Fold this sequence. Notes:
Elements: H1 3-9, E1 28-39, E2 42-53, E3 57-61, H2 68-75, E4 83-88, H3 93-98, E5 102-105, H4 117-125, H5 134-140, H6 156-168, E6 174-178, H7 186-200, E7 205-209, H8 213-219, E8 222-227, E9 230-235, H9 237-245, E10 247-252, E11 267-273, E12 276-281, H10 284-294, E13 301-304, H11 307-314, H12 332-338, H13 347-350
The protein binds adenosine-5'-triphosphate.
Residues 39, 42, 44, 62, 64-70, 322 line the site of adenosine-5'-triphosphate.
Amino acid sequence: MKHAERAAQKSPMAPSALGVGRTPSAPLAVHLSNVSRTYGPVRAVDGLDLDIPRGQTVALLGRNGAGKSTSLSMLLGLLPPSSGEVRLFGAAPQRAVREGRVGAMLQDGKPIPRVTVRELVRFVASSYPAPLPVAETLAIAGLDELAHRRVDKLSGGQAQRVRFAVALAGDPELIVLDEPTTALDVAARRAFWEAMRRYARRGNTVLFSTHYLQEADENADRIVVIDRGRVAADGPADEIKRTVGGSLVAFDLAGAPSAGLALLPGVTSVEVHGDRARLRSSNSDATVMALAQRGAIRSLEVAPASLEEAFLALTTALTTAPTTAPAPARTQAATQRRTAAPIPPHAKEATR
Ligand SMILES: Nc1ncnc2c1ncn2[C@@H]1O[C@H](COP(=O)(O)OP(=O)(O)OP(=O)(O)O)[C@@H](O)[C@H]1O
């Protein structure tokens, strides 16, 4: 079947084609409304709102302990929220999972010994009401060549693609991936994302968490940054970079003092490494003019902030325990205000 046809079948316009016993289509694949989860005194997720329309690929970013895995577990119905509402395709997550509409690849999970890749995928597919044909699953996951190999004898990257195939076997419309490429080498990561894009091109919805910001930038239509269990930013990568990250202005101090740089127009943070100063600016034109007036333009460079810069501006380093008390919801204006916060000096090490 052609991709376009399959995508059309999965559209809200064609509810009858969704498979035996599936609940009627809803426009949203994912709906989380004011969802919170506490573990004793730790508030891991704190009033999270997230709507994902069908067909979108969304990356969930956040520092260690930000609440990503907890959010994904609640979304999949594996963990009950302390409060709030979780719906997948307009129904309870357990129902969507039972109907095969959701596939997941979580952080844990060991391969079953002594079965081949094809046998495993066939077995998993047989447990769903309307599975994807095994050959199609193997092709999407890039496992044609490995179909006859034992799953417990594969490399880490190959095993990860098998886990992806297992998540695909029920022909889900939504796939949830928790740090899917951790510990994979560059080639294995590339192969994995190619497989994921083949799946997404069929009109499916993808939600993945990652610490590799470049992967999010390259593979997601939309990025949701979580900080202390809340949404700190939500939008296309370019928009987040532009509105949150601002620009980076770097120049050689040439022996001049760095005092006062933080007070220049537009400057929101200052880093000095040896003789090189790096300023983050929300108005690079004004910053450069002011530097020119100081005569500080040796080896001047102006560049848009990377997603990593924006991410660092948005998230708080976990130097202390995660929040144990409710904090005010972060609005768009609050997000903008946070741009003014200096980058914590240790922040670069805190993200991979
Ligand atoms: N089962 C648990 N019991 C107690 N606290 C937990 C439990 N699971 C998670 N937490 C705490 O909840 C917070 C959020 O954890 P979570 O695993 O959701 O974060 P994460 O963003 O997925 O982190 P990472 O990037 O390190 O995987 C952390 O402070 C963590 O220590």
